[in-house]
Amino acid sequence: MNVLVTGGAGFIGSHTVVELVNAGFSPVIIDNLNNSSESVLTGLKNIIGFDVPFYKADCNDFEVVKDIIVKHKIEGIIHFAAYKAVGESVEKPIKYYKNNIGSLVNILEVMQVTKVKNLVFSSSCTVYGQPDHIPVTEDTPKKKAESPYGNTKAIAEDILEDVIKSGEQMSIISLRYFNPIGAHPSAEIGELPNGVPSNLIPFVTQTAIGKRNKLVVFGSDYNTVDGSNVRDFIHVVDLAKAHVSALNLLKGKETAFYDVFNLGTGTGNSVLEIIKTFEEVNNLKLNYEIGPRRSGDVEKIYGDVEKASKILNWKTEKSLEESLKDAWTWELKLKNNNN
Ligand code: NAD
Ligand code: WQD
Fold first, then answer.
1. Rg of the chain's alpha carbons, rounded to an integer?
2. Which ligand is nearest to the CA of 301?
3. Catalytic residues
4. For residue 56, what is the domain's CATH number?
5. Which atom of ligand 1 sits closest to the CA of residue 84?
C-alpha cells in the first residue's frame, strides 16, 4: 500500500516512515518543514537505504495534496501534520485552529475527491484533561480542553466521527498518544525541538549536555508517589509501530468505520523517577531543582492500553530505560553534528 505521511519529517512521523518501510508499505512524505528539517531525510535514507519520495508542501493546499495522491496512487493517509506547542496555542489560537483543523478538513475533502478510504489521525491523551480515574480507557469521558491546541484534537475527533456517521465511505482511526520520547536506536533520527523545549525529555537531555543550565521540576506537592507529576512515557519506535497496526486493521475494513485507541505503555512514571532513571542508565548527574507548578499541568495520567493490545494486536516492546538511553544517544549525536 502506498501511504501518504503528512508531517513525515517530524518527530513521530519520521519514525513511522521507518516502520512503514520495515512492514512493506511505501510511504510518501508531505511536510512544509515548519517544525522539522531536511536533514531528517538524510537520516531516513541512512536507516532504510533509499530516498523516500518527499514533497516540501503544505497539506492545507488542496491541489498539491490531490496531485500527490493521484501521482503516487495513495491508498492510505497518516495525518501527523499539525502545530503542537501548547503554550503558543494559548497566545495564537487562530494559527492553531487554522492549521490543525484546516489541514484535517482539507485532507478529508481530498480523500472524498480522490476516493482514498483509509485515514489514521494523530490525536492525544490531552483530550482526557485531568481524568477522575486512572488509567484512562477510550471510554473515559473527554474533558474541556486546557488549551486551544488540546481543543484542536478534541474538535478533530468530533469531525472524524461526524464524517463516518454521515455514511462517508471512509475508514478512520484516531490514535491518542501519551508522552512519546526517545529516538531511533541508530541515532539517525530523533526529536528536533524548535528553540527552548517545553517537553520534559528534550529539556533533560539539553541540560545534561550543557545547552541549558538546569532543569526545573514543575511542582513536588502533587498527590502522587513523590509529589511530582505522573505521565505515561512511550518509546517513539513503539508508537510508530502502532501506525502500521492501525493501517493493517483499516485495510481489512470494507465499510464506513471509525475507532479510537490509546497508545501508551499502561504505566505511569513521575518526573522525579524519570530524572533518576535518566541519571542511572546514562551514568551522569543532572542539574535540577524543584520549582513551582506549571499552570495547566495535569496531576497524573496514564493509559489503559488493553483495547490497542486486543484489536490492533500491538503492545510496547521497549522499556523506559531504553527510551532514556536512546534520547541521550540522540542528544550526543546532535552535539557531534554541531546542532
Ligand atoms: P512535529 O512538530 O515533530 O511534527 C509535525 C510535522 O508536521 C513537522 O515536521 C511540521 O513541519 C509538519 N507540519 C505542520 N503543519 C504542516 C502543514 N500545514 N503542512 C505540512 N507539514 C506541516 O510533531 P510530532 O511530535 O511528530 O507530532 C506529530 C503529531 O502527533 C501532531 O499532530 C501532534 O499534535 C501529535 N501528538 C504529538 C505528541 C507529542 O508529545 N509529540 C503527543 C500527542 C499527539
Ligand atoms: C511532562 C511532565 C511537566 C518540562 C504535553 C502536552 C500534551 C501532549 C504531550 C501533544 C509534566 C514536567 C516538563 C520541564 C518539568 N502533547 N516538566 N520540567 O505536559 O504531559 O503534555 O505533551 O498532544 O498535549 O500538553 O508533557 O513533556 O511538557 O511534561 O517538570 O522543564 O514534565 O510539568 O509534569 P505533558 P511535557
1. 19
2. 2
3. 149
4. 3.40.50.720
5. 34
Is there a domain that residue 282 lies in?
no
- Whether 333 maps to a domain, the answer reads no
Angle at the Cα of 60 from the Cα atoms of 57 and 63, rounded to 5 degrees: 75
Distance of alpha carbon 126 from alpha carbon 144, whole angstroms: 10
Nearest ligand to the C-alpha of residue 240?
Answer: 1
- What are the average pLDDT values for consecutive 10-residue runs of the chain, which has 339 residues? 98 98 98 97 98 98 98 98 96 98 98 98 97 97 94 98 96 98 98 93 98 98 98 99 98 90 98 98 98 95 98 98 98 89
- With respect to residue 105, please indicate whether it lies within any of the assigned structural domains: yes
pLDDT of residue 328: 98
On whether the pTM is more than 0.85, the answer is yes
121 lines ligand 1 (CB under 6 A): no
Give me 97's grid cell.
Answer: 485552529
Measured in Å, residue 236 CA sits from the centre of ligand 1 at 13
User: Rounded CA gap, 271 and 263, in Å?
Assistant: 20
Q: Which helix (H) or strand (E) holds 290?
A: strand 288-291
Helix (H) or strand (E) run with residue 323 in it: helix 320-336
Secondary structure of residue 217 in the 3-state scheme: strand
Q: How far apart are CA 308 and CA 212, in angstroms?
A: 37
Q: How many domains does the chain have?
A: 1
Cis peptide before 135 (omega within 30 of 0): yes
Question: Relative to the CA of 146, which ligand 2 atom is closest?
Answer: 25
Q: Alpha-carbon distance 122 to 275, whole Å?
A: 28
Cβ pair 250, 164 in contact under 8 A: no
pLDDT of residue 289: 98
Domain that holds residue 122: 2-181+233-264+304-316
- Domain for residue 54, yes or no? yes
CA–CA dist 219, 195 (Å, integer): 23
Report whether residue 34 contacts ligand 1, using a CB cutoff of 6 Å. yes
